[in-house]
Design a protein that fits this description.
Order of helices and strands: HHHHHHHEEEEHHEEEEHEEE
Number of strands: 11
Radius of gyration: 23 Å
Number of helices: 10
Helix content: 40-55%
Largest sheet: 6 strands, mixed
Oligomer: single chain
Length: about 375
């Protein structure tokens, strides 16, 4: 999730555990520990691009590291937070639970996104990703943020019960939104599965995730072996409405000659195999299809240019780092949000068109097939 959300959740958990004892300092310390795991980016200069894919949301987000950090920081924090009143003393055990609770909730909401989080590092298991929230969702963050700003001005002992009620409301509404996202995800998944079954199409696997800033419109990627099918469905769509699938050839032949390269192996691991590949004169272009694509509509001819959000070049001619992340071409924000909103409200005309794959290094846009 974004840093504001991580800091806000950390502050809310900090208030829940220590607010009664140290007041607004609990909010500040909670916000600090809520963002601490993501400070792994400070070590990025030590890694090349392939290494950064492993490092971010890697060891710093694991159960092993959060347990070690809680144990190591317990006594120093208990001494730092020492108060005059014996009844309000913070034990090392409580300080450890504070660190663990704030750290673990950071990791938990990271698991809600499609990026994947190495919760069980160093065990050789897949990253955890529940795919139920977009990386930024104001409706999740806002209740906690409003409650924290309000309660931060309530500083007297008599106002402690009100602080706790406000914080409980903020955390409760955010938690309810998460539960609602899982419910909507289930409804969307049923719709995608029913559509594929009606076509007689049996994917090897399939994932779905919400589109930006909402849990109404969902995007699905179905692995058909040599192709990835991408479709969108709003929970407001009627059941009998078919999903319009855009078909992306996977490009296994382009990937195969480079499959043994460290960079290619790392991208295959990072994307969990949800990639498409295209050859170019210097190597191969690879995109991770889990993260969605930008969509630029041409109203004159009905064309939709799609470009994967995360893509890289493996440049065999490069000296040093052979993996180059490609910048995302950002569409006009207001227009994109408008189209997402219209499609979420089951208005298909503003969303669909004749799709092309763009952003491939050294290539013209590629026309794509659709399954209506």
């Amino acid at each position: 999730m974004d840093s504001l959300t991580q800091a806000t959740l950390g502050a809310a958990v900090g208030e829940l555990i220590l607010g009664k004892r140290i007041g607004n300092r609990a909010i500040a310390w909670g916000a600090f520990f809520g963002t601490l795991p993501d400070l792994d980016i400070l070590f990025n200069p030590l890694f090349d691009t392939a290494g950064k894919l492993w490092w971010h949301r890697g060891p710093s987000h694991s159960l092993l590291v959060m347990c070690l950090a809680s144990w190591l920081l317990a006594k120093p924090l208990a001494r730092l937070w020492k108060t005059r009143k014996k009844s309000e003393q913070i034990t090392a055990r409580r300080a450890a639970w504070f660190v663990f609770a704030v750290w673990s909730t950071h990791v938990l909401i990271d698991c809600f996104t499609v990026y994947g989080t190495s919760v069980f590092w160093p065990l050789p298991v897949d990253r955890v990703a529940f795919n139920n929230l977009f990386i930024i969702d104001p409706l999740f963050t806002a209740p906690m943020l409003v409650a924290l700003v309000w309660l931060a001005f309530l500083k007297t002992k008599k106002q402690v019960p009100k602080r706790r009620r406000l914080n409980a409301w903020g955390l409760g509404l955010a938690s309810a939104y998460v539960l609602l996202s899982f419910t909507f995800k289930h409804l969307a998944a049923r719709g995608f599965d029913a559509d594929l079954a009606a076509r007689g199409a049996t994917p090897q696997r399939r994932i779905e995730a919400p589109t930006p800033f909402n849990i109404i419109l969902w995007r699905s990627v179905a692995d058909m072996g040599d192709e990835l099918w991408v479709g969108y469905r709003s929970i407001l769509d009627f059941d009998e409405k078919p999903v319009r699938w855009t078909i992306y050839p996977k490009g296994k032949a382009a990937f195969a000659p480079h499959a043994d390269l460290r960079e290619a192996e790392r991208l295959d691991w990072f994307s969990d195999g949800w990639w498409i590949a295209r050859p170019h004169v210097k190597g191969v272009w690879i995109a991770d299809m889990r993260f969605g694509e930008t969509r630029i509509h041409d109203p004159d001819d009905g064309r939709v240019d799609t470009r994967p959000v995360f893509s890289w070049d493996i440049n065999l001619q490069a000296r040093g780092d052979r993996l180059e992340p490609l910048p995302m071409k950002r569409p006009e924000v207001s227009e994109s949000l408008k189209r997402v909103a219209l499609r979420a409200l089951a208005t298909r005309d503003a969303w669909q068109g004749y799709p092309r794959l763009t952003g491939i290094t050294g290539s013209f846009p590629e026309l794509l097939r659709v399954a209506d």
